Amino acid sequence: MSVPVARLTGVGLRYGETRALDAVDLEIPAGGMVGLIGPDGVGKSSLLALVAGARRIQSGEVQVLGGDMRDRRHRRRVCPRIAYMPQGLGRNLYPTLSVFENVDFFGRLFGHDQAERRRRIAELLESTGLAPFAERPAGKLSGGMKQKLGLCCALIHDPDLLILDEPTTGVDPLSRNQFWELIGRIRAGRAGMSVIVATAYMEEAERFDWLVAMDAGRVLATGSPAQLRGQTGCDSLEAAFIALLPEERRSGHRALVIPPRRSTGGTPEIAIEAHDLTCRFGDFVAVDHVSFRIERGEIFGFLGSNGCGKSTTMKMLTGLLPASEGDCALFGQPVDANDMATRRRVGYMSQAFSLYRELTVRQNLVLHARLFHLAEKEIEPRVAEMLERFDLARVQDELPPSLPLGIRQRLSLAVAVIHRPEILILDEPTSGVDPVARDGFWQLMVELSRNDGVTIFISTHFMNEAQRCDRISLMHAGKVLDSDTPQRLMEKRGLPTLEATFIAYLEEAAGLAGKPPAAAASPVQAAAAVRPQRSSFSWQRLFSYARRESMELRRDPIRLTLALLGTVLLMFIIGYGISLDVEDLSYAVLDRDQTTTSQAYALNIAGSRYFVEHEPIRDYAELERRMRSGELSLAIEIPPGFGRDLKRGANPEIGVWIDGAMPTRATTIKGYVQGLHNDYLRELAREAGVPASAGAASSEVRYRYNPDVESLAAMVPAVIPLLLIMIPAMLTALGVVREKELGSITNLYVTPVTRLEFLLGKQLPYIAMGMVNFLLMSALAVLVFEVPLKGSFATLLLGALLFVTTSTGLGLLLSTFMRSQIAAVFGTAIATMIPAIQFAGLIHPVSSLEGLAAWIGQIYPATYFLVISRGVFSKALDFTELWGYFVPLLLTIPLLTLLSVRFLKKQED
Amino acid sequence: MPQTLANILHLGIKEFRSLGRDYAMLALIVWAFTLGVYSSATGLPETLQHAPIAIVDEDRSQLSTRIVNAFQAPYFRPPELIDQREMDRGLDTGRYTFTLDIPPDFQRDVLAGRQPAIQINVDATRIAQALSGAGYIQTIIATEVDEFVARYRGGAPLPAQLAVRVAFNPNLTQSWFGGVMEVINQITMLSIILTGAALIREREHGTVEHLLVMPLTAFEIMAAKVWSMALVVLVAAAFSLLVVVQGWLAVPIGGSVALFLLGAALHLFATTSMGIYLGTVARSMPQLGLLTILVLIPLQILSGGTTPRESMPELVQNVMELAPTTHFVSLAQAILYRGAGLEIVWPQLLAITAIGAVFFLAALRRFRRTITQMA
User: Which of B28, B43, B48 is facing A839, going by the closest CB pair?
Assistant: First the structure.
C-alpha cells in the first residue's frame, strides 16, 4: 500500500444549503478492498462520485490514479481505468435492452472489437451466473440480478479502480454472497485492482481490508475492521461504528429490546389471511398458492430471494393487483380494491420510493394526512409528531430527491403510518437505511405492534431484522418454503444463524446445494488485453450510442408505429382537410326592390360557384341576427327603387355586408363580390349596346406551377417540411432529458464517450427514421395525391437529409436544457408547431410577415426546406437554382450541435 | 360526498405544487400566452399584405408608370422594376408572388382601342395570396386604365355602385383574428399536454401506486387533475385575453368575456379529459409526445381556426363536428368578434358540454380500467 489510489485534500461539496462533504482529507490505499461506512446522507455517495469523476469538484483537490481530477485531460486519460457503479438497482442500465446487449453496449463504448467483446461477455456472464438469462431484458431482472449485471457492465474494460456505491442494497442474502464471491475471484485474478465500496451492511464491511467511517460529511476514523474494533473496544463493527459517532448523535441510540407479545387469551383475532393466493403474469407464475394467517398485533416477516413474489403478494393484499386465484382477507373481509373503509385501516409502503418529488417533506405528510381524512385540527399536531418521531424536522422543507435514500425511506414510513393504520404492509422499508436509523425504525414498529396492536407485515433482506419478527415466512420462486418463528426455523435446520438457515433453505429449493460456484475462471486473463483507444473522437463510441438508441426504438413498437404512420396519417388529414379555395360561402339577399331587375342582380350572384344561397332576409334586424350568429358570411341589400333608379341613371347603390371575423375569408369574399358586380355591369352595358370603357386593356392571369390553382397541389409539398420538423424533433426531444430523469445519464459522466459522440449517436437513428418518413411522404404525394414531382429528386433528397438533421438537432437541443420530460414535450410542441404552421411560409410567404414573426420566419429552418420542397415539386427546379437555400440549413446543423454540446454537462453539478 | 370533494380539492392543490416546481414549464406557459400570442397576432399578414410584386415595364409611358405607382402598401410591397430575364427566376425562388409584364407600346395601343394585354404571373403555390391578389391586381389595372382613358376621353360614371361594408372588423385587421385564435390554440394544446403528462409522470415515478392504496377513487384522482389543470389554463387564457389581446394588441372585444370564459371552461373539461385518455394510452412520455402531436395538429388545422370550415370536404366537416375545438372556435368567433350573446351561442355551449361529458366518461372508464396496471 505505497502509493494511494486516491488522495483527497480539503474536499468540500454543497448542494444549495446542504453541506455534503466538509473539508475531507483522505488517502485511499491502492490494491485493497476499501469500505465506506456510515449513516445515510453523510456524503459517501458524493465522495465516490467525486473520485469517479462523475461529479464536478467544488473545492479542494482530488487526485486519482496519479492525476488531478479537475483536469479534463487527466479525466479522459484515466476514465477507461475506472469503473463506477452508481447507487440504485440498475439505474445506469437500459431496461429494454437484454442482458447481453447491455454489457455489449459498454464493451463498444470502451472500444473492444467484436471477438474481444464476445469473449469477455461470455466470461463475465458465466462467472456471475447470468449466462442463462443473456436474452432477458434488464428491466425484467430481479434486484440482485440487476446488481450483478451492473457489475458486469462495470468490469467489461478491466478497470484498475472499481467504485461500487451500495451494490448490495436491496439484494437478498444468497445473491449478496454470490456477489462478494464474484468480487473476490476477480480480485484474486487481477492483483493490483483497487475496490472502493460504500455499504450499509456492517457484516459485509467486516470482510474489507480497510474502512473509512464517515459522519456528517467528515471522516470519523480509518483503519482495518480489527483496528476500528480495537480502537473503540467493541466486539462488533456495528457497535464500534456507533461508538465512533459524536456524543450527541449517539445519545438517541440504545439497544433494541423486543418485548414478547402479550397473549390476549382466547382465540386470537386474525388480521391478515391468505388462502392459496396465486398470481400469474401470462405464463409466469409470480405467486404460487401462498397461504398464511397473521394475528392482530403480530410482526410477520417475509424473506426471500429477489423476484420471489414477496412484493406481488403484498400488492395483492393491498388490492393493487388482482389475485389470479385464491383469496385474501383483511379483518375477515375479502380484499376489495374498491373498499375505501379497508384502505383506511391499512398503511402501505412500496419498495420503490413513491412519494411526490415536487412536494417538500412536510407537504407530502400534510397531503397524505388530508387524503386519509384526518380531522383538520388534528393534522398539524400529527404532522409535527411524525416529523419528530422519524427525525425529519431538520429536512421538513426539503424536496425528497435532494435527500439520501435512508431519509426518504423514513419519510415513506412516516407517510404510511400517519393515519394510524391497524395493518402495516411494508415492502423492504429499511433497504439502504443505516444501522442506527434502522434500529430507530424498529423501535417505532415495536411500539406500534406491542402498544397499539398494529399488525405488521414486513419484507426484509436484513437477517437481524428478520430475527426480531414474531414469525417469518421463507419464500422462493413464488412458493412459501416454510413459516415459523426464527428460533424454530434455525432449530429445524440445526444451524447457528438465521442467515445460514435461510441460505440453506434457498439452496435446497434452487437445487444449488453442493454445486461449486460456476466457472472459477474469472475474466482475469483478459487483463493483458489491449488498452482501448483514447482518441478524442471515436466513431465506434458514436455508433454504439446510435445502435443502442435504435434498439430501444425498435423495442418500443408503439412509438415506432406512431413515428412512421403518424406522418402518413397527418399528411392525409392536412392534405385533404386544408383548403384555401374559399368556396360554398353562405349568403342571403335582402331584396327591398322586388323587381325583375333586382332579381336579375340576385340571380347573378346565385349563379356563382363560390356562393350558396340561404333563404332571403326580411328586415335589418334579421340581417343583424343572422350575421351575428355566423350563419351568413355575406348579406346583400338591394335598395328600394333599384330597377327604377338604374334605368333613370340615378346610380343606385347596392349594400353589401361581409362578416369580417375571419379576415382572410372576408378579403376573398370582397374580391368575389366586386368581380361579380363588374360582370353584372358589363352584362348591363352589353345589353344596352354601350361600348364599355372596361376593356380598354385586358389582363391575362397566368397561374404558374399550379395552373388549376388547386389547394392540394400547393399544400402537399408544403406539408412535408411541416411534418418533417414536428415528428423528428419530438422523437429526439426526450433523448437527453429522459436519461436525466431515469438515471442512465451517469454513463455519459463516467465512460470515455464524449458529449459530441453522445449527441450525434443519439441523433443518427432519428435522422434515418426521418428519411424513411420523408420517402413515405414523397411516395404518398406522388402516388396517392397525384402531385407530380417535376424537379430533381436528388436535390429534394439532399435537402430533406439536411432538414431532418436540423430538426432532430433542434429536438436534442431542447432536450439538453429542459429539466423535465413534460417541459421538453411542451417546449417542442411550441417550438415546432406554431412557427412551422404560421411563420415558415406554409400559408403566408415569409416576406409578407412582420416583426417578431418575420424574424422567426427568417431564421426558422423549415422556411428554407419549404422553398426547396415547393421548388422541386411544383417549379421543376434543381440544385443549381436552389443551392442558396441549402446554405442556411448547412450552417444551422453545426450551430445546433455546438449549442447542445455547450448545454450538456460531462459531469454532474 | 363532502369527502370526495375534499379529496378532489387536496389532490388538485398537489398538482399546482408540482407544476409550481417546474420552472421551465411555467416559463413556457407564460411565453405561450403572452409573446406567443402577440407574435402570432402581429406577425401574420392580412391576406394581401406586403405581397411581393415585381414589374417588367417595357412601355415606360405615362400609363405604365401610373400602373406601377398604383401598387401600394399595405397590400403590396413597393414593386421592384426588373427586366424580363429576372422574372422567371424571381418567381422560381419565391422572391415574388406576382410579376407583371407591361408590353411595349401599351399606352399607345390602349388609346388606339387595340385592347393590349398585361401579363400577370402568379405563383400559384402560394394559394392564399394567389387567389385574392390576382383579383386585386386585375381590378387595379382596370381602374387605372379606365381612369386614364376616361380623363383622356371624358366618360360617364358607373351605372350602379357597390357599397361594401365589412362587419365586426371593418379594416380586416388580421391581428384581431390571429390573437384570439392563438389563445384558443394554446388553450387546447396546453390542457392536453398538462393533464396527459401529469398522469404519465405519476406512472413513471410510481406515485400512482400510492394513490391506489389510499381511500381514493379513480374518479377523484381524475377529477382532481381535470379541475386543477383546467384552472391553470383558464387563468392563463383570461390573462392573455384581457391583458395581451385587449390591452397590448388593442383588439376590441365585441361580446362578453365572461361568457367566453364559461365556454372555455366547458371546452377545457373536454380537452383535459382527452389529455387523461391519451395519458392512459401512452406508456411513456416519448409516446405521449408523439400522440399529442397526432391529435393536436388536426384539432388546430381542421376546426375552423386556420381556414374556413365551409371550404373543407364534407366528410372532414362532419367528422370535426365531434371535436370540441370546432364548436369552441365558432363560439369564440361569435362572442368575441360579433358580440353574440347566450341566445345565439347556446347551441355551441350545449355541443361542447355534451362532447365534454362523453369524453370525460370515456376517459374515466378507461382510466378505471388501466390505472391498476400502471402501478
Answer: B43
Shared-domain flag, residues B223 and B318: yes
**Structural domain containing residue B99:** 53-153
Residues 6 or more apart in contact with residue A32 via CB below 8 angstroms? A1, A194, A195, A208, A209, A210
Per the domain annotation, does B167 fall within a domain? no
Q: B292 and B356 share a domain?
A: yes
Q: Are A386 and A365 in contact (CB under 8 A)?
A: yes
Query: Closest chain B residue to A868 measured between Cα atoms?
Result: B93
Q: Which domains does chain A have, with CATH numbers?
A: 4-91+161-250 (3.40.50.300), 270-510 (3.40.50.300), 539-575+711-903 (no CATH), 585-688 (3.40.1710.10)
With both helix axes pointing from N to C terminus, report the angle between B342-374 and B257-281 in degrees, rounded to the nearest 10.
20
Q: Is residue B99 part of a domain?
A: yes
- A-proximal residues of B, 191-230, CB under 8 Å: 193-194, 197-198, 200-201, 204-207, 209-210, 212-217
Q: What is the pLDDT of residue B227?
A: 94
C-alpha cell at B195: 393533464
Encode pLDDT of B92-145 as tens digits.
877 888 899 999 999 888 888 788 888 888 887 777 777 778 878 888 888 888
* A656–B310 CB contact, under 8 Å: no
Residue A237 reports pLDDT greater than 60: yes
Give which of A116, A80, A124 is closest to A100, Cα–Cα: A124
Q: Please report whether residue B159 resides in a domain.
A: no
Residues A694, B116: C-beta atoms closer than 8 Å: no
* B residues 106-165 lying closer than 8 A (beta carbon) to A: 106, 109-110, 113, 115-132, 134-139, 141-142, 145-146, 149-150, 155, 157-165
Q: Can you tell me the distance from the alpha carbon of A576 to that of A781, in angstroms, rounded to the nearest whole number?
A: 12
User: pTM, whole model, 2 decimals?
Assistant: 0.82
pLDDT tens sequence across A864-901: 999 899 889 888 888 888 888 999 999 999 999 999 99
Q: Where are the beta strands (DSSP E) in A224-305?
A: 270-281, 284-295, 299-304
Residues of chain B with confidence (pLDDT) below 50 = none
B7 and B139 in a common domain: no
Instruction: State the best of B3, B31, B47 to mutate against chain A, taking most chain A CBs within 10 Å.
Output: B47
Site of grid cell 414478547? A260
CATH number at residue B133: 3.40.1710.10
Q: Is the dihedral of CA A356, A362, A367, A373 positive or negative?
A: positive
**Residue B158: closest C-alpha in chain A:** A651
Total of domains in chain B: 2
